[in-house]
């Protein structure tokens, strides 16, 4: 499915699968690239690939989220970020998006209730042309722009989130087709172990698909794509034999509409 060409109907030539998919020419198929980074993975404890560090906790229920920044300049009249695109899932596990007008450290409620937060992206900014602070989305009390429960964030200098977590939407089956992983570790005889954990609806997390690397990166297509049912939560984690290690990962999925 991944590597083979498919004949197009509009040009009559063979075109790779992903070219057609990105152009919307394959009905009922979608693709998503999840990119995550954790700048400070240490020895001994599994940490998720997201900038906040520690093990990612998925929201327990659909909620109105708040968007806020660590900087007062991320606001309508500020020099930093002004509007934020929030993408995720609603209470029915259907894909939703909305644009939030930021107000610095003051939390701004989303109009929609979000069960999952996938991606944050800065849409507009002031004279600085980028965000001035770290931008958060979450729930609970907000102190200096930081909510009690953080479900995603944009680090300064990125203008978009770098959290690898994802949940398969309702009425779709997902297939993991490509994996990239890397680490800043370079010391002799040191290693980083990266793994996936997934949880089906109502179940518990299972860990598997481990990769052990040392001061290098790996990038490969999955010859037999791993399948995930609708409403499955997926996370990627790392643990190292050293301290203060940057770990990154990229996962590409193709998700296909169910017809049964």
Give your account of this protein's structure.
This protein is 2% helix and 55% strand. With 260 residues, the chain is mainly beta. Strands 4, 12, 14, 15 and 17 form a 5-stranded antiparallel sheet that branches. A 4-stranded antiparallel sheet has the order 3-18-13-16, with no helix packed on it. The chain is globular, with a radius of gyration of 19 Å. It starts with a strand and ends with a strand. The mean pLDDT is 91.
In terms of topology, how is this protein built?
Elements: E1 5-7, E2 14-16, H1 17-22, E3 29-41, E4 47-48, E5 63-69, E6 81-89, E7 95-101, E8 108-114, E9 116-125, E10 135-143, E11 146-154, E12 166-167, E13 172-183, E14 192-199, E15 206-213, E16 217-228, E17 233-240, E18 245-257
Antiparallel strand pairs: 1-2, 3-18, 4-17, 5-8, 5-10, 6-7, 6-9, 10-11, 12-17, 13-16, 13-18, 14-15, 14-17
How many domains?
Answer: 2
- At the third CATH level, what is the topology name of the largest domain? Jelly Rolls
Output the helix-strand order: EEHEEEEEEEEEEEEEEEE
* CATH-defined architecture of the largest domain: Sandwich
- The structural class is mainly beta
Average pLDDT figure: 91
Oligomeric status of the shown chains?
single chain
- How many E strands? 18
Can you count the helices? 1
- Radius of gyration over all CA atoms, rounded: 19 Å
- Provide the CATH top-level class of the largest domain: Mainly Beta
Helix proportion: under 10%
Main β-sheet description: 5 strands, antiparallel
């Amino acid at each position: 499915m991944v590597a083979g060409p498919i004949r197009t109907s509009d040009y009559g030539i063979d075109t790779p699968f992903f070219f057609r998919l990105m152009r919307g020419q394959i009905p009922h198929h979608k693709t998503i690239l999840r990119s995550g980074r954790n700048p400070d993975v240490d020895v001994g404890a599994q940490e998720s690939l997201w900038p906040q560090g520690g093990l990612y906790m998925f929201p327990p229920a659909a909620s109105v989220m708040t968007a806020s920044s660590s900087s007062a300049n991320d606001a309508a009249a500020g020099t930093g970020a002004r509007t934020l695109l929030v993408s995720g899932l609603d209470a029915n596990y259907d894909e939703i998006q909305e644009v939030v007008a930021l107000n610095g450290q003051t939390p701004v409620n989303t109009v929609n209730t979000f069960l999952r937060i996938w991606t944050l992206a800065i849409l507009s900014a002031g004279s600085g042309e980028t965000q001035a602070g770290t931008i958060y989305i979450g729930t609970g009390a907000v102190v200096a722009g930081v909510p009690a429960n953080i479900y995603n964030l944009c680090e300064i200098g990125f203008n978009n989130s770098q959290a690898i977590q994802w949940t398969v939407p309702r009425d779709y089956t997902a297939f993991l087709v490509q994996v990239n992983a890397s680490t800043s570790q370079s010391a002799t005889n040191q290693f980083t172990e990266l793994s996936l954990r997934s949880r089906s609806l109502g179940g518990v997390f299972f860990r598997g698909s481990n990769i052990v690397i040392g001061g290098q990166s790996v990038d490969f297509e999955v010859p037999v794509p791993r399948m995930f049912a609708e409403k499955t939560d997926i996370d990627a984690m790392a643990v190292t034999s050293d301290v203060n290690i940057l770990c990154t990962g990229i996962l590409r999925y193709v998700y296909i509409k169910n017809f049964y």
